[in-house]
Every structure is written in structure tokens, then in C-alpha cells.
Amino acid sequence: MKRQAATHMPGGKKEDPRYGQVIGHVPKELIKRFKMEVLNQETNISEALEQSILLWLEAIADRKELPDTMDRTDKRRKSEGN
After folding, report:
1. 5 in any annotated domain
2. H/E run at residue 73
3. CB 35 within 8 A of CB 45
């Protein structure tokens, strides 16, 4: 994936009105692996998240099968028949 040149603003992306924040909950082991790979790739979490979202959207558009990400709460509800 081709990287675009960063636009520098005082305060960074947090102060840039073209950017927003994404918040979610994922398993701690996945976070650990993600952060380690971000360091290995010499990038930052924001860039890695942006690339991940783009890849996810491309997969959805191409109707590709995605890994199961059902969390424990959903699995428990399913097993309880709710």
C-alpha cells in the first residue's frame, strides 16, 4: 500500500478537523501482537489502523471471507440460546 506524505499541523491529527477517533474493544492478546508489529514495521498505531480499515473495507467490497471476530459475550449468548 502506497504511503501518502503526512500533513503536519500544530497538535497533529488530533487537532486536524479532517480526522476522527475510532474506539473499540479487542482481546488483549491481539492488542499486544498489534503493538509489537507496529514497532517492528516502524510505523505508528494511527497509520496501522488506517491501513487495516482500508483493507477491511476492500475485503467487504470484494465480498471476501473475513475471520470470525465474535467476542466472548456474543458466544455466551449463542451457547445459552439467546
Report:
1. no
2. helix 72-79
3. yes
Residue 42 domain boundaries: 24-64
Domain count, the chain: 1
Q: Please indicate, yes or no, if residue 41 is contained in any of the structural domains.
A: yes
Whether residue 11 lies inside any domain: the answer is no
Q: Indicate the pTM of the whole model.
A: 0.67
Q: Where are the alpha helices (DSSP H) in 28-70?
A: 28-40, 45-61
Q: What is the dihedral angle through the alpha carbons of 81, 24, 26, 51, rounded to the nearest 10 degrees?
A: 130
Backbone φ, ψ for residue 26 (5° rounding):
-135, 160
pLDDT tens-digit map of 20-75: 999 999 999 999 999 999 999 999 999 999 999 999 999 999 998 888 886 655 55
> Cell 514497532, residue?
39
Is 40 domain-assigned?
Answer: yes
